[in-house]
Amino acid sequence: MKVKLKDIAKQANVSITSVSLVLNNKPCRISSEKKELIEKIAKDNNYTPNINARSLITNETKTLGLIIPDIENIFFSRLTKTIETYCRQFGYALIIVNSNDEYKEDLYLLDLLLARGIDGLFIAISNSAYNNKEEVCLRLKKLTIPYIMVDRVFDELNCNQVYFDNVKGSYLAAKHLIENGHSKISCITNCIYSKNTVSRFEGYEKAMKEHGLEIKKDYIIEGDYRIQSGYNTGDMVIKNHTTAVFVTNDMMALGLLKRLGEKGIKIPEDLSIVSYDNLLNDFILGPGITSIDQNISNLGKTACDLMLKLLKNEETAIKKICLDPELIIKKSVKNIV
Ligand code: RIB
């Protein structure tokens, strides 16, 4: 049977509080003999601390929460792995929950995590949170534990944030296509109301305008960051007679590549592609896809380091950390200069 604190206290003839303080290496006014006896009884009975019981004394559960919008998206599964692995080194367990890009799930899962006594929260908000900003911001502002917005942020919310410069990333992508002679460039976006989308369109638009290139209405095709939405844009990309396409995330690029393959469109011979997230080349056949890399390991570790400081009250000023993405050139862009 699992030995509890009260069993050790009874055997050592001391209070439960004394046992908990000794086993948590906290200061305690009992003799060194009693301390050794408590430690021996715990060891002999293979005592393992109950984190819930311990939290009653220490007021911490050594548990963190992570809300992500799409656990099937490689970007988020990689981010989750980085955060979970890193926090574990510091004795923190991570509870991971998936909002499926629905803001009501963000709010429900937030309460579910708080009910489990998490000490801190990482959140990559859902696409639809941008359509319900006031409600989500209000909820986050009420939090009494440290929280960090990761990857997807609300500019107007004065809170800790770690994210990438999406304007820069999309500018690099479009500029690379333009420097290879492309002037008719499609852009497959995420949901138009998402901050991520606005920024990634802004960078594309900046590069096009800098080179005096027209952005025709049918160049801009809205997806939702998921594979199927990328697949659904394939016929429109073919019909709009652009020579290149900038896809604002890898999952949509995967869907687009599938549809283009079905239609016999060759990359880069018939159409050049630059994607975003740089995660596909481990999985697909054919030419490597030129892409914007968002160093997920750096994103996750930066967020964890900030969280650890917040948990130890070593950081009080709000930090908004913007990381630089990088263009990784492979073989999916044809030079037509
Ligand atoms: O692929 C998912 C996208 O949404 C990534 O580019 C990341 O920025 C996330 O916000």
Notes on the structure:
Residues 3-58 form the HTH lacI-type domain. This protein folds into three domains: 5-49, no CATH class; 63-164 and 296-325, Response regulator (Rossmann fold, 3-Layer(aba) Sandwich), CATH 3.40.50; 166-294, Rossmann fold, CATH 3.40.50. It is built from twelve helices and twelve strands. It has helices spanning 5-12, 16-23, 32-44, 51-58, 74-88, 103-115, 133-141, 166-179, 195-210, 227-239, 250-262, 296-311; strands spanning 63-68, 93-98, 120-123, 147-150, 160-164, 185-189, 220-222, 244-247, 272-276, 290-293, 320-323, 326-328. A six-stranded parallel β-sheet has the order 2-1-3-4-5-11, sandwiched between helices. A six-stranded mixed β-sheet has the order 7-6-8-9-10-12, sandwiched between helices. The site of alpha-D-ribofuranose (RIB) has 12 residues, from helix 11.
Short description:
The chain has 3 domains: 5-49, no CATH class; 63-164 and 296-325, Response regulator (Rossmann fold); 166-294, Rossmann fold (3-Layer(aba) Sandwich). The chain contains 12 helices and 12 strands. By secondary structure, it is an alpha/beta fold.
- Compute the average pLDDT: 95
Low-confidence stretches: none
Query: Which cofactors or ions or other ligands sit in this model?
Result: alpha-D-ribofuranose
Q: Look at the structure and name the CATH superfamily of the largest domain.
A: Response regulator
Number of helices: 12
How many domains, in number, for the residues? 3
Structural class: alpha/beta
CATH topology assignment of the largest domain? Rossmann fold
User: How would a textbook summarize the main sheet?
Assistant: 6 strands, parallel
Q: Quick one: how many beta strands?
A: 12
Hey, roughly how much beta strand do the residues contain?
15-25%
Organism: Clostridium putrefaciens
InterPro entries: HTH_LacI (IPR000843), Lambda_DNA-bd_dom_sf (IPR010982), Peripla_BP/Lac1_sug-bd_dom (IPR001761), Peripla_BP_I (IPR028082)
Domain HTH lacI-type: 3-58
GO molecular function: alanine racemase activity; DNA-binding transcription factor activity; transcription cis-regulatory region binding
